[in-house]
Specification:
With about 290 residues, this protein is α/β, with parallel strands linked by helices. It is about 40% helix and about 15% strand. It has a single domain, classed as Dihydropteroate synthase-like (TIM Barrel, Alpha-Beta Barrel), CATH 3.20.20. It has an eight-stranded parallel beta sheet with strand order 8-7-6-5-4-3-10-9. It has a two-stranded antiparallel sheet with strand order 1-2. β4, α2 and β5 form a beta-alpha-beta unit. α1 crosses α2 and α2 packs parallel to α3.
Length: about 290
């Protein structure tokens, strides 16, 4: 499977990629956002030093208990970071830059200046964002959700979340291609926590292989999610161990990219699990002796 994003060509199977989160805002649910472009660049640099393959920048929190910012404000927050990105890109091993936005006006304003991926949480209601990505040869991440972003949709119920995801991605991939976006420029995201209940999220982890039929890289946004808090009964900043568990669940079922806050822990988890999966040690078929069991 080939994934293309501007000058980047990535072929799977390979070690899953880690996407680090940089919030250029002041209302991140983890409290790690900043409106200072220099500080945001420092966060990105540290994540790259910790092994991130992709940096995902977002100027507006997805929290539904916060009002939206204006298009003009979102653009003003993103452009200073994008302008400085070539410095980091030159000093590291060709990392990718993902821009977390859903408004077509913002995408049209920022892609001429840079960005390899548009991380779109709008659920692609029409072909506009796909058409913009096609124009700039960027990659589009299509995320499953229901309804307009920034509004709560916790009431949504699904008879079968996996069948819903299969139907959704079948339609949205066709829509994106009809807009001129090459199939190799598309990623998919099942949208953990977005318009989903606890059991929906857990079912996605368990049955993730159902999405392999689309032959597209699967991104799992696992970091500190509400479902982890629901299961463990802990606040957001205490969910890094739960995040590692979700990475393990995703890797065993074929996820390709993980979006996280704690990059170092995620990279170590991915590399260790990848080594186990790729191990070529011979299978021991003989039963252990009683002495070996003591």
């Amino acid at each position: 499977m080939i994934w293309h994003a501007r000058q980047h060509h990535i072929e799977f199977p390979r070690r899953p990629l880690v996407m680090g989160i940089v919030n250029i805002n002041d209302d991140s649910f983890c409290g790690d956002g900043t409106l200072d472009p220099t500080q945001a660049m420092a966060q990105a640099k540290q994540q790259l030093l910790d092994g991130a393959d992709i940096i995902d920048i977002g100027a507006e929190s997805a929290r539904t208990n916060r009002g939206p910012i204006s298009v003009e404000e979102e653009i003003a927050r993103l452009l200073p970071f994008i302008a400085q990105w070539p410095v980091l890109h030159a000093n590291f091993n060709a990392p990718l830059l993902s821009i977390n936005t859903w408004r077509s006006e913002v995408i049209a304003a920022v892609l001429p200046h840079g960005g390899d991926i548009i991380n779109d949480l709008s659920a692609l209601p029409d072909a506009t964002n796909a058409r913009l990505c096609a124009e700039f040869d960027a990659s589009l991440l299509i995320m499953h959700s229901v309804g307009q972003p920034k509004l709560p949709h916790t009431h949504v119920q699904y008879p079968n979340i996996i069948e819903t995801l299969v139907d959704f991605f079948t339609q949205k991939l066709e829509l994106a291609e009809s807009a001129g976006l090459p199939y190799n420029n598309i990623l998919i995201d099942p949208g953990i926590d977005f318009a989903k209940q606890r059991d929906d999220n857990l079912a996605i982890y368990r049955h993730l292989r159902a999405l392999h039929r689309f032959d597209r890289p699967i991104l799992l946004p696992v970091s500190r999610k509400t479902v982890i808090g629901d299961v463990l009964g802990i606040p957001a900043l205490e969910r890094d161990a739960g995040t590692v568990a979700c990475i393990a669940a995703g890797m065993t079922r074929g996820a390709h990219i993980f979006r996280v806050h704690h990059v170092k822990a995620a990279v170590q988890t991915v590399k260790m699990l990848w080594a186990v999966q790729r191990s070529t040690s011979p299978l021991v078929t003989s039963p252990l002796s009683s002495s070996a069991m003591t």
